[in-house]
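Write out the 3D structure for:
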Amino acid sequence: MQRIAVLLAGLAAIPGDSGTAQQAAGTALWRLAATTLPLPPALATGTAAVFWNPAQIEDSARTQLGIEGIQTPASIGASGMLAAVRVRAGAAGQIGFVYGHVGLSDLTRTGNSPDPIGSAVPVYTSALGVTWSRRVAGTAVGAVIGYHETRLDLARVTRWTLDLGVSRTITPGGGLRIAAATHFFSALSASDPAQDVYAGVEYRLWQGPLWGDHAVVRGRYGLAFSHGFGADHQVGVGFELGRVVALDVGVTREGSYDTEGWRPAAGVRVTIGKYRVTLARDAGVNQLGSAYRVGVDARFK
């Protein structure tokens, strides 16, 4: 996968180009974590989803808490977490904080033999941001100001980013929704591998009674681009039964510097009272195994 290739390129380039390679490697770690998203990042919803698109609106909730854990297969060895808290701030909309951390484990130094010597090699990236969102003329808009730190062995680089997001329902009743967001935006460049631009569209394919409840089927298409290599295209389907169970399935055609690949992912969301539990995984590629994500959202009115 080009995700791993970008990370290895960043590792090999240390020290290089005033931290540019390290920043790209840090973003590549987050792209590994995003492989568990079964829908386009621009269309992701939930408290922790402000990390992917800050235009998140939950009008009925006074306080929202969200936490997600991510684990990639042992052959990659990356794990991470996302946490967010958001509160209603009257006419100003909703404000909050978001924190994320993802890193590689079991990396050790070696000499003339494969036996490890010395301490482990630290490889991780973390982000802490302030988030805001509000509904303006029927459109959800949001922003995140984030501080990032990426550590690759002895090299450490920090940067500030400003991300903007929008999400709007076009037709009455939620039949058509479009969304877009920047991700880790810090430079006016269309070829910076340390940042992305997300876009997505969601259309209601069918709705009606099913098993004594109201069911909805939605089709989705998303795009991730402006990151220095080929665009990622994602198509998928979502199924919702009432406000209790939702299933999401998607397949991503990943762009690359030379070759392209396909990666499927699926997830299920179950709402129990004020809590929403999410379980998701990708199917893995090239026999590397699957990555998993577990999340819990809590909403307090």
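DSSP finds two helices and 16 strands in the chain.
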